[in-house]
Write the structure tokens for this entry.
Amino acid sequence: RNESARKILANKLNKDIDSVDKKIDSKTVFSLDEFNKIMRDKNLRLKYKILGTSGNQIKNSLIVDKDVTKFLARDEDHKAVALIRLAKTKGVFASGTLLKYYFSKKLLNKALEFFNNIKKWGNEPDGRVLNILFSGFANTKAENSHKYLITNQQVEKLFFIFQNLIKKQNAEIENSGFNNYSRYYNKNKKYGDTNRLSLIHVHSMMKAARNAERPDLAIKIFDELLKEEMHLRPDVTTYTEMFNVLKKCTDYNYTVERA
């Protein structure tokens, strides 16, 4: 089987067979262009071999996450992305692991791009992934600095994601026949469907907007929670975050009025 893989790779990459590592597995070194070319191929068995997985292993979310963690330990995030995509819904948990990696490396644009790709691939991020996304943008600072890294452009894209999630959730709750968020969430959580926005996500999004010097976006979020059609309601932490947001406002009269 290894000999067959070597021949396929040599033909596909226009490489001499002798220049390809004798053992083909997840540690075989390819250029990024070569790797992407392999991943675009329809040969699933070849992809599995390059990623060190199998048809059975890829159906186990814990094994997928373990393999992703190994790739990230070697800074091979391109392999982690490829495995997560191949794993489909079984790669959702590992998506959170990859997002954590991007935030630890201060790669906020990569985190945003990857999250958007999750949706494009037809997967739904769960509550854990959403928490990592919003808290990552809210809390990531520059190295040896108190300066938050989130930019105006990034927070606007994050706000767009947040709005779409809110709209989708409100519509689902309305169509579910439940008249409040708690009953809907508890019912769906029972069946493992936990891709729901909670106040934890709301607070992180507001903090992200505050740290990006965009209090206007945080105030919009707070005002949305007060609308009748919303199925989330502010709590003590929400009001505390709102007061912190108002401290960022330059209009003194507006700040006093809102407070």
Remarks:
- DSSP finds 14 helices and no strands in the chain.
